[in-house]
């Protein structure tokens, strides 16, 4: 399963880089979304994908009764999702404003900023 996830993460990173190297600013934002999702999947894959109960220790015990899931990757992913959403929202507003001012979404045509 982890080998399959490694291939999926690699494909997402490759697609994200391809999209970010295009001339359209909309494709740049799509690439940003893909690369943030690929990074999240990479953290999950590296942390180890296994099923487990919540990391709760019963009262009076020293260790959990069964296998537990690691909460750190989940916390990191949750934080990354919130940050990625903020970056996406800012990017969409920036694209909208740039398109209003310049009239195009082609990055090569946006060289002149004094319009």
Features:
mainly alpha; 3 helices; 115 residues; single chain; 64% helix
Topology:
Layout: H1 2-20, H2 25-47, H3 71-102
Helix pairs in contact: 1-2, 2-3
Verbal overview:
With about 120 residues, this protein is an all-alpha fold. About 65% of the residues lie in helices and about 0% in strands. It has three helices and no strands. The N and C termini lie far apart (about 55 Å). The mean pLDDT is about 85.
Quick gist of this model?
The protein contains three helices and no strands. It is mainly α and 115 residues long. Helix 2 (25-47) packs antiparallel against helix 3.
The pLDDT mean sits at 87
Q: Biggest sheet, in brief?
A: none
Shape, principal axes of CA atoms: elongated
Number of helices: 3
The helix fraction, in percent, is 55-70%
- Spans of at least 5 consecutive residues whose pLDDT stays below 50 are none
Give the oligomeric state.
single chain
Give the class from helix and strand content and strand pairing: mainly alpha
Number of strands: 0
Distance from first to last alpha carbon: 53 Å
Encode the helix/strand succession as letters.
HHH
How big a fraction of the residues is strand?
Answer: under 5%
Q: What is the C-alpha radius of gyration, as a whole number of Å?
A: 20 Å
């Amino acid at each position: 399963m982890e080998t399959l996830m490694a291939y999926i993460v690699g494909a997402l990173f490759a697609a994200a880089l391809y999209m970010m190297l295009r001339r359209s600013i909309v494709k740049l934002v799509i690439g940003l979304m893909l690369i943030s999702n690929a990074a999240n999947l990479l953290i999950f894959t590296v942390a180890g994908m296994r099923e487990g109960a919540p990391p709760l220790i019963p009262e009076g015990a020293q260790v959990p009764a069964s296998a537990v899931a690691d909460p750190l990757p989940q916390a990191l992913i949750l934080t990354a999702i919130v940050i990625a959403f903020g970056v996406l929202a800012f990017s969409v507003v920036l694209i909208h404003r740039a398109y209003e001012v310049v009239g195009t979404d082609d990055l090569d045509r946006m060289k002149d900023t004094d319009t």
